[in-house]
Structures are given as structure tokens and as C-alpha cells.
Amino acid sequence: MPEATRAERPPRAPSLDAGAQSAPTAAARSRRIAEQARLVLLGMRPRQWTKNLLLFAGVTFAGRLLDVAALSRALVAFAIFCLLAGATYLLNDLADLRGDRLHPTKRRRALASGQLSPRAAWVGIAAALALAALLTLWLLHLPQSTQSLRLASLWPPRLAAAPAAQGTVLDPYAHFGGSGLLFVGAAIAYLALMVAYTFRLKHLVLLDVFAIAGGFVLRAMAGAFAVTVKISPWLYLCTILLALFLALGKRRQELLLLSAQASGHRPILGEYTPQLLDQLITIVTAATIMAYSLYTFQGETGDQRLMVTIPFVLYGIFRYLYLVYVRNEGGSPEEVLLRDAHIYWSVLLCAGTVAVVLYVLPK
To answer: Cα separation of 134 and 157, whole Å?
Structure first.
């Protein structure tokens, strides 16, 4: 074709296909981002956030559950520890990525299965820590109590004016820098302990289960610091014993589930034997029951009235042992709580009885 003819040809009109193709591409990108965000949330294991209900122990047993200000501070503290726990779960999955891909159940996790990208997981960790820091600043500025109307009792339900003295609640930790500073310290200590567990402590025999128990104790301490109530020594004892009981049961289930491949998946499991774990579980079970029983009739909170909750605690522990030894369950205590109706109702009835004793019956 001659050059003049080529030059006289009118320019091509822009194709409508380009815009049509860019729209689906943008929509696909948005869907992918939304899917990654959903997988990040699942990777933070919301089901395991039930462990953070321990933060309400302080406000409950101190008799301040009906104080709106104290309950608000406890709720914010609960949200903070849910974010911290979620961030450490994502970090743990990133550190154990290779081993989880060989695990019979953990390989289904979003990171191990390849559905969630490591980059998105790191973004989720950063976002969770940033939001936790903002909530902590908010908590430090919330009032410790109010002089406004509050619930005085559950039954008969009635309102009463909070005593004026509660407008300026005395901080039992003032000589330590105040409960706010101690709450921040407990949150940082929890985060540091979980990071140390992820990279080192979970590879050390016995220290791995004590690190898990330490995380529960720090939750209980943080809950008390958040609402500015004095921590009972019984709270420490019962918390660490119950946490050791659950952690040892989890180790036993992992050891039996992985069988000969246990040490290959997690070398520390090679340091345990079913016989050793059985003996440790027996010791901790007896100590847990005894510590809680002594608390109910020697602790300052219950004044012997909480003794009525002992049967629920006994049944819950016995049921959990049944699941561990007969049904080979117990690898995820939080899932057992939500899935097993017997334990679920024993916990619910125990909590309801505690509420009746502390907030309904006259002292």
C-alpha cells in the first residue's frame, strides 16, 4: 500500500474493550483484598478469644460487674487482648509455616494452605498492634468509676446513686505507678511472652506449658489492673493451675495424634511421653480442684457461699478428662468449650451461680 494512502487512513477510535477489561480487573482486586482481610481475621482465631474472658474475673469477683465505668474498662481491656492474641497467632503461624504444612489438621489453616499470603498476614499483625495501642490510650483516659446512676442489684432490679467516694477510686497500685501503667506493663509482658514462646520457649520442655500458663496469669492480672481492683492470690493460683491442666492435656493430644511423627513436626514433643504427661495431669488436676475449693470457703469474695459452684467445676474437669483420655480430644480447649455441650453448660451454670451468689443473694 502506498505511503500516502496509509497516511490518509483515519486514526482508530479507542476501543471500548479497554474500559470493560479494567473494571473487572479492579473488581477482582477488590474481591481479593476483601478475601485476604477475611482470611487475616480467621488467622487471628476468633474462637480462641474466649480465653480472654479471664479478663472479666477481676471485675466479677470484686463485685463491680454492675458498675458501668468498671465494666466499660473491662470490655476495652478484653478487646485489647483479643487484638494482641490475634497478632501473636498470626506470628506463630508464620513461624511454623513449614511444620504446619505437614500437620494433619493445621495444614488446613489459611497460611499453611496458601490461601493467605504472608504479606497480608504481616499487614494484619501491624494493624492489630496499632489498634491495640489506640485502645490502650483510650482505656487510660476512661473514668475508673462514676457518680451517676448504676445497677445496684440484679434482683430485685433497682438503680442507686454510686457513692461519691467512687468518683475518685483509690488506686491500690498507686505506689507502683498506678493501675494504668501496670495494665500497659501486663499487655507488653503478654506480647513479649508470646513472641518468646513462638520463637524459643515452645521448644523447651516444661517451659512451653509454663509459658502458656503465664499468658493466662497475665490476662487475669491485666483484667484486675484495668478496673483498679486488688488481685486476690487465689486468682493467681487457680488461674495458673487451670492453665497448666489445659496445656498438658493439649500436649498429650498432640503427642498421640502425631504418633511417630510427633518429634518430626515439633521436636519438643519428643521430650514428652504419655506416662509423664499422665502423671503431670494427675498432679495438676488434684491441685486445681483443691485450690478452687479452698478459695470458695477461705477467699474474701465468696464468704463460703461460692462452695455451691464446686460441683460444676468438678464435673467440668472430669468431663474434660473424659474427652482427653477416651475420645482423644483436648488439642484445642477453646473448641471443646464451644463444641461439647456438657462442658459448655457446666461453665454456663457455674458462671450463673457465681452471678447469683455475688449479685443477687444478700451478704
So the answer is: 36
What gap in Å lies between CA 152 and CA 360, rounded to an integer?
A: 10
Phi/psi at 148 (nearest 5 deg)?
-80, 180
Say if CB 329 and CB 323 are below 8 A apart.
yes
How many whole angstroms separate alpha carbon 44 and alpha carbon 208?
A: 21
Lookup: cell for 343? 462442658
Q: Residue 210's CB: how many other CB atoms inside 10 A?
A: 16
- Alpha carbons 195 and 113: distance in angstroms, whole number: 23
d(CA 306, CA 356): 10
More confident residue, 28 or 284: 284
Find the helix or strand (DSSP H, E) in which 160 lies: strand 158-161
Distance CA 65, CA 223 (A): 12
| Spatial CB neighbours of 327, under 8 Å, sequence gap ≥ 6 | none
Asked whether residue 17 carries a pLDDT value surpassing 70, the answer given is: no
Residue 127: partners with Cβ closer than 8 Å, 6 or more residues away: none
| Exposed / middle / buried, residue 39 (Cβ in 10 Å: 0-12, 13-18, 19+) | buried
Which residues, in sequence order, are CB contacts of 358 under 8 Å at separation 6+? 60, 61, 63, 65, 301, 302
CB count within 10 Å of CB 191 equals: 20
Is the separation of the CB atoms in 81 and 187 below 8 Å?
yes
DSSP for residue 293? H
Instruction: Output the pTM of the full model.
Output: 0.82
Smallest CA-to-CA distance from 255 within 224, 276, 230, 237 is with 276
126-144: pLDDT as tens digits: 999 999 999 999 999 888 7
